[in-house]
């Protein structure tokens, strides 16, 4: 059997199609956000959501500081938003020109397929990532098709 290193693991797990989201946080300096695809429902009783943050993610300290975050589920055709929020563009510049509203302190990007607002329950170390568990306080869904990440590229 072959040893499984990071490159092989990434190549194999790339066969699992995932939804694409933008995790958002409202800070005193304005909204910040990052693209994430390691997002899933965790529990129905209580209603919990799980997000995995790269330990180097610039959004993670904002989640720690505010104790709140939103998950915006991107729709097919929103690849530009996924790329923008995955980029190294300065945090304060990412929202420039991105239409959004703030719902109960959570930035919600206009035109997304769905969004969820959470209060941070806990952060758990997980290797080179930090697992964030959020208590869901708001959730809305729209119409359309999802943006997916599969084998290293976006798919509508």
Feature tags:
7-stranded antiparallel β-sheet, 4 helices, alpha+beta, 156 residues
Tell me what you see in this structure.
- This protein is an alpha+beta fold and 156 residues long.
- 17% of the residues lie in helices and 49% in strands.
- The chain has 4 helices and 12 strands.
- A 7-stranded antiparallel sheet has the order 3-2-6-9-10-5-4. The protein has a 3-stranded antiparallel sheet with strand order 1-11-12, with no helix packed on it.
- The longest helix is centred in the first third of the chain and has 8 residues.
- The N and C termini lie far apart (36 Å).
- The mean pLDDT is 95.
- Uncertain stretches of 5 or more adjacent residues: none
**How much β-strand is present in the residues?**
over 45%
Secondary-structure element series: HEEEEEHEHHEEEEEE
Mean pLDDT: 95
In which order are the strands of the major sheet placed? 3-2-6-9-10-5-4
The number of distinct β-strands equals 12
Terminal CA distance reads 36 Å
The helix count comes to 4
**Could you estimate the helical fraction of the residues in percent?**
10-25%
Shape: globular
The main sheet comes to:
7 strands, antiparallel
Rg on CA atoms, Å: 15 Å
């Amino acid at each position: 059997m072959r040893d499984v290193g990071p490159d092989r693991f990434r190549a194999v797990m790339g066969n699992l199609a995932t939804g694409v989201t933008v995790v958002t946080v409202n800070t005193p300096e304005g909204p910040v956000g990052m693209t994430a695809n390691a997002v899933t429902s965790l529990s129905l009783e209580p209603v919990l959501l799980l997000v995995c943050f790269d330990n180097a993610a610039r959004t993670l300290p904002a989640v720690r500081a505010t104790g709140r975050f939103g998950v915006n589920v991107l729709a097919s055709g929103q690849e530009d938003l996924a790329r923008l929020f995955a980029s190294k563009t300065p945090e304060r510049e990412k929202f420039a020109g991105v239409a959004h509203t703030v719902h109960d302190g959570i930035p919600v990007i206009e035109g997304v397929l769905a969004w969820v607002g959470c209060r941070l329950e806990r952060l758990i170390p997980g290797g080179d990532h930090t697992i964030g568990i959020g208590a869901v306080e708001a959730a809305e869904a729209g119409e359309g098709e999802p943006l997916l990440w599969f084998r290293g590229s976006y798919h509508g």
